[in-house]
Amino acid sequence: MKRPPPGPIPTVEGLPPLRRLPGGHTHETYLTDLEGREVVVRVYGSGTRRRGPEAPGVQAGVHRLGKGVLPVPELIDWRPGTDGLLVTSRLPGVALSDVLRTADADLQRRLGESMGDVLGRMANMAMVGPGCFMDERLRLGPWEAHSESLITWLDHHTPGSALVDLGPQILAGLRTLAAEGDELLSVSPRAVLVHGDLSPRNVLCDADVGVITGLIDWEFARSGHPVEDAGKVLRRIAGTPFVDAMLTAMNPWLPSAEQADLLTLKRRARAADFYWLIEVGSRRGQSPATERAWKQLRKMGRHMDLLGDLR
User: Fold this and answer.
1) Class of residue 37 by CB neighbours under 10 A (exposed 0-12, middle 13-18, buried 19+)
2) Is the dihedral angle over the CA atoms 296, 171, 287, 82 positive or is it negative?
């Protein structure tokens, strides 16, 4: 399923004319000049990926929370609603996804270490419990039903879904892996700040220095497991020096009871991401992502290994 082409550049009351942000993938991000500096304007509703009317407020709240702690843009202004907007500073750097395509092992390790430090700081930004952020004050909404364990999550999403097509043997294997994943995740009962859509394209970096310069697109942020974001990165670029360096650098930031060897951290991160794979894989046929998730689940269940599709 291809994204629709960008529409016309919108006009925003109170702001100078907008121009497209090079490399923006949502068709919702633009540049303009405000008070002598270049700023980024996110206009919700003009593109293809809308979280809902709370998205501008959630991003504004995360930018306030992360100021001085995380590499997030400076919040300049925001307006609520489905057709709301967010105005922030423009962070330096280029998309990590573009850099990793050609980065050698040394650069990948340096960038991975920097990413691990960022995720380590996020893993210490504790929340009162798990849940989705509902507004600019980051008030928590209820966590999704049946998400108390991977077992209950799998049992809920299987009947009548595309997961049935995996067959009884693979489903039995996935249920065994869900039990293993629950045990891995139980080591950390804490809830912390989670980006929710962390991929290399939502990360900015300085390839010359080898550091992460920004995390962007926080509309799916929530309170969740400390290694959930690491699991999303692992799913996308497993088997790279970047991932190994990221998890190794993140490890010392965790409480001593949660620290582990590299393989255990990978398995724990995959367990946290297992929730996403189950939900998305159950909707096979709706998009390329649902097809990929279904196939990943099939490999995991066939190999009886949480990392079976990543080796």
Assistant:
1) exposed
2) negative
| Residue 310, token pair as written in the block | 């990543």
Token pair 């970047």 is at which residue?
242
Q: Which segments of the chain does DSSP mark as H helices, in order? A: 55-66, 96-100, 105-122, 150-157, 168-185, 228-237, 241-250, 262-281, 288-303
Alpha carbon 301 to chain centroid distance?
24
Q: Is the dihedral of CA 103, 107, 112, 115 positive or negative?
A: negative
Between CA 33 and CA 42 the distance in angstroms is 14
Q: How many residues does the chain have?
A: 311
Distance between CA atoms of 236 and 134, rounded to whole angstroms?
A: 28
At residue 88, what are phi and psi to the nearest 5 degrees?
A: -135, 170
Provide, for the chain, the percentages of residues in helix, strand and coil under a 3-state DSSP scheme, each rounded to the nearest 5. Answer: 40, 15, 45
The Cα–Cα gap between 216 and 95 comes to 10
Whose tokens are 């097509």? That residue is 165
38: helix, strand or coil: strand
pLDDT, tens only, 34-92:
999 999 999 987 654 567 888 999 999 999 999 999 999 999 999 987 778 999 999 99
Question: What does pTM read for this prediction?
Answer: 0.93
> Nearest CA to 48 among 2, 3, 18?
3
| 3-state SS class at 72 | coil
Q: Determine how many CB atoms are found less than 10 A away from the CB of residue 197.
A: 17
Which bin fits 196, alpha (ψ -120 to 50), beta or left (φ > 0)?
left
Coil, strand or helix at 281: helix
Identify the burial level of 302 via C-beta atoms within 10 angstroms of its C-beta, where 0-12 means exposed, 13-18 middle and 19 or more buried: middle
State phi, psi for 197 to the nearest 5 degrees: -145, 45
